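Hi V.,

You were right to ask for the full record rather than a summary. Here it is.
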Amino acid sequence: METILLNKHHPAITALSQSDSKLASLIELIGDLTLTPSHVPFESLVMSIISQQLSAKAAATIKSRVKVILPIISPELVLAAEEEAIRQCGVSYPKIRYIRDLSSKVMNGEVILDNLHELDNAELLKQLTSVKGIGAWTAEMFLIFTLGRPDVMSIGDAGLQRAAKWLHTLADRKDGNYLGEIAPNWTPYRSFASLYLWRAIDSGYVDSGLQVEACTKSGIV
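Predicted structure:
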């Protein structure tokens, strides 16, 4: 898949800006973003499992070690690899079981990665979450960052919820589901809206104490 360039000329950005004035201000503040889907969905899932609950640095180190013993990451090779060899890379035993479970399910057809374009989001999420170690969040990130699906909303992502509350200066909710109020307005481009919310967090805007319009004026970075 080709890199998706999100700029003012992209129809998704036009639609999002028209549907939500606050989001339009954030898009103007942040500017262009890109999303580069992966050509290797199985490897992406394996690496996602390995990266769970690790810092970016630790995950990168472990993944680089795994690539040394498994230059090509396929279901067949994962199942054939010695468990201790994978463990020596820094992968925990539970995660080894998870990636082996994924490999087995791909091999026996319970999880289908060859015709992903034919499956809708709901069916893909159902298949992926049937694998041990793949929860809703990991599956949703796969749909966004590996497949480039444009309309995925990860309600369980605490960062997105916090950013949504900040963007629209929403009152506290006991259930913490701020996205439930505003994300429907972003359909069918909720994935792209999420990219801007994540960037707002990374850029320090969400924790700045200022509304998005004030951030635009002050140029906070």
